[in-house]
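If your schedule permits, I should be very grateful for your opinion on a structural question. I have a record of one protein: its chain in single-letter code and its fold written as C-alpha cells. Would you kindly read the sequence against the C-alpha cells and tell me how you understand this chain to fold? Thank you for your consideration; the sequence and its C-alpha cells are set out here.


***
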Amino acid sequence: MDIKITSKELFRYTEGRWLVGDDLNQELRYVKFDVHELCRRAAEDVGDGTKVIRVDKIPSLNSRVFLLTMDDEKEIIAKVKCPITGPVMMTTISEATTLAFLDGMTSIRVPEVYCLECDEEKLGAEYILMEKMKGGPLDAKMGLYEQPGSNEDD
C-alpha cells in the first residue's frame, strides 16, 4: 500500500489557523490513528479482494475525512472522529443512526454505511466508512460560505 501523505497532514487540522488559541484548537482537533488498518478495514468491508490505492484528505473542521480510492475505482468516504466532536461512540453512532433513519423514513438518498467502529483500541479512534455519493457539498450548492461582495457578476 503506497500512501503519500505525511503524518503531520494526516492527523492534524490543516485547513486554517486560529487568531486566538491556535495551539489549543490544533491540539483539540489532533487525532492519531492507524491509517494502514483503516485502509485494510475499508478493503475488507467493501470490496471483493480490492485494496486501497489512494488516500486523499478532504477538508473538515472537527473530523479527519478521507476519500479512499480502491483498485477497482470504487470510492469510499472514511471519517475519523476527533475528540472535540463529542463523547466517544455518541457522534459516530448518531451519524450512522441518522443516515439509517433518513434512508428508511424519507425518500432522501443517503450514503450506505459500510462499517462503523466505536472501539478506539482497534484503530486509535472511532470511525465510519461510507459510500461516496455523486455531487458536491451542500454548503457549496447553497452558497452558505459566500463572502459579501464576492459576487463575480458585480
Notes: The domain at 7-133 is CATH 3.30.200.20 (Phosphorylase Kinase; domain 1). The longest strand covers residues 63-70. The chain has one domain: 7-133. The mean pLDDT is 82.
